[in-house]
Amino acid sequence: RSIEFSPERVEKIIEEKAFLNKGLKLIFKNEKDDVEKTFLYPEGVSSFLKSLLELGNTPPIGGESFALERANGIKIEVAFCWTESTQEKVHSYVNGIHTKGGGTHEDGFKSGLSKAIRNYISVHNLLPKGVKITGEDIREGLTCVLSVFIGDPMFQGQTKDRLATAEAQRIVEQAMKDPFDHWLSGNPNQANRLLDFVIDRAEERLRRRQEKETARKTA
Question: What are 143's strand-pairing partners?
Answer without folding.
Answer: 81, 89
